[in-house]
Amino acid sequence: MNYVGHLVGNFDVATLVTAIFFVTFVFWLIVYLRMEDRREGYPLEHDLSGELEAMGPHAMCDPKTFHLARNRTYTVPNDERDTRPVKAAPSRRWAGSPLIPTGDPIIDGVGPAAWTERADIPDPMWDGSPRIIPISSDSTYWLAPNDPDPRGMKVVAADGVVVGEVTDVWIDRPECMIRYYQVGSVLVPFTRGVLDAKKRTVYVSAVDSAHFNAAPKIGGSTITLRQEDRILGYFSGGGLYTKTVW
């Protein structure tokens, strides 16, 4: 019996339309998505030679310009490449092998100490003002009177050496929380310090005194996104590589 819509055997119009849909829509959707996800980070570099790898059947997409806050724009893909030297060597002569630091991994930014070259501008509020500021620069913020005030407390590094005292705290204004302890011109991530109110001491187990003195410095009353990433990477890497004596 030949039903309405049947073409050949059990292959009917509905089957034909479904096949056309998958071929024309799903296939090109996959191609489109694979091109779009190559806006940044491509073409890939070979781990050993550093040469650019072939793109394969999916080429780079056309440049697209994104309009950001404060009249900034960013166009991708572009020809920008991270030219910072990787101060580590592969442990084996095959791509993807673990890297072994060739110097001081904390200072060189290897492994967990690595950081991204983010925009060199402060993280802005809705009105364009910096989101993270020292609490001393804005009288509309204060520390809760029932909580210990870390300002004036001594700071002890992982090797037990006193490296200074907390001169200020930097706060995240929208979140109403402390982000950094300021020790001279060094900002210590709040999560990397353990505060002992009775001893009026902040213990920093992430770095020893030598690395503390070599930590990234800030100037003025603002911190940029790039500086934040560098500082967080530095102390995070120290959390893995540094040995604590206390």
TrEMBL record:
Domain Photosynthetic reaction centre H subunit N-terminal residues, every copy: 6-136
Annotated TM spans: 13-33
InterPro entries: Bac_photo_RC_H_C (IPR014747), Photo_RC_H (IPR005652), Photo_RC_H_N (IPR015810), Photo_RC_H_N_sf (IPR037097), PRC-brl_dom (IPR027275), PRC_barrel-like_sf (IPR011033)
Domain of life according to the entry: Bacteria
Span of the signal peptide: none
Residue span, PRC-barrel domain: 148-207
One GO cellular component term noted in the UniProt record for this chain: plasma membrane light-harvesting complex
Keywords: Membrane, Transmembrane, Transmembrane helix
Pfam family, one: PRC
GO biological process, one term: photosynthesis, light reaction
Protein name, UniProt field: PRC-barrel domain-containing protein
